[in-house]
Write a structure and sequence with these properties.
The complex is a heterodimer.
Chain A lengths: L3 H11 L10 E3 L9 E13 L8 E12 L5 H13 L2 E3 L9 E6 L4 E5 L5 E12 L5
Parallel strand pairs in A: 1-2
Antiparallel strand pairs in A: 2-3, 3-7, 4-5, 5-7, 6-7
Chain B lengths: L11 H37 L6 H4 L1 E3 L3 E2 L5 E2 L2 E3 L4 H6 L14 H8 L2 H12 L1
Antiparallel strand pairs in B: 1-4, 2-3
Classes of the chains: A alpha+beta, B mainly alpha.
């Protein structure tokens, strides 16, 4: 099943900030390696709102972005800030098949430290309110 | 032959009543919002917040409504321990006890029924 995080991952890959899916960019999982990597997690949001006056029906969900790096490097903060600048997109039409179209992705706030993971690696978190186009079958 | 009638309507009292009604509506919305926030905190504390020492769960708070100008009112709620944010955002992969997103999950649960809260709340307060 394709998700908001999958579409956002495609948008971040295309943003030219050094992220590649399944190399250092993951969806719904944060693998133990590499140290410097990013995970996007799908979370529920407000849900489906029906379109009025010609606007499309929309489904609002939340995507959490967790950025992690080796404790000796400030790399996680730098990368988290780059992602913050790239992740708020408007009307992103994905290239990938069956990916949902993002009408808007808005950051709920800048990335903030969540301390260190069990292996001592610095980590940052940011959340996005993502509005997806809801495909209505008739 | 013609007649002329003049009618004078004093709208000041009508306007005053409307303004009082608008003001009461915002105040009522604040009270309903306060109750919704308390419900969210209860759901969060009973279903989601991780409990190791109990300090995080005990730090949950809901402040009274704060008015911002004529037509806006807000309620602040959350958990006040220094580690509340980090624990809330910790990915499940970290393997910590209990749920992450322990407040966000409760908000989503309660917001799915928020129309009913406001309908019943306005009936009760107005």
């Amino acid at each position: 099943m394709t998700t908001a995080a999958d579409t956002l991952a495609e948008a971040l890959e295309a943003a030219g900030i050094g992220l590649t899916r399944a190399v250092n960019l993951f969806v719904d999982i944060l693998p133990d390696t590499p140290d410097l990597c990013v995970a996007l997690y799908n979370n529920p949001g407000v849900g489906v709102t029906w379109g009025l006056a010609g606007n499309p029906a929309a489904n609002q969900v939340r995507v959490q972005i967790v950025t992690r790096s080796d404790p000796r490097q400030p790399a996680a903060r730098t990368l988290a800030q780059r992602i913050h600048q790239a992740a708020s997109v408007t009307d992103y039409q994905p290239v990938g098949l069956n990916l949902p179209r993002i009408l808007a992705a808005m950051s709920a706030g800048p990335p903030a430290s969540i301390g260190r993971d069990p292996s001592g690696r610095a980590s940052f978190s940011e959340n996005l309110d993502v509005t997806l186009e809801e495909v209505v079958l008739s | 032959m013609s007649s002329q009638f003049r009618v004078h309507i004093d709208t000041q009292r009508f306007e005053r009543t409307l303004n009082e009604f608008a003001d009461q509506t915002v105040t009522t919305a604040g009270e309903v919002l306060y109750q919704v926030a308390q419900t969210i905190l209860t759901v969060s504390q009973s279903d989601y917040v991780p409990v190791v020492t109990g300090n995080l769960r005990a730090s949950g708070f809901v402040d009274r409504p704060v008015r911002h100008g004529a037509d806006e009112i807000s309620v602040e709620m959350g958990y006040s321990t220094s580690y509340a944010w980090a624990r809330h955002e910790a990915p499940m992969d970290w393997g910590q006890a209990g749920h992450s997103k322990y407040l966000e999950r409760a908000i989503v649960d309660v917001l799915s029924d928020v129309d009913r809260y406001f309908t019943e709340g306005f009936r009760r307060f107005m």
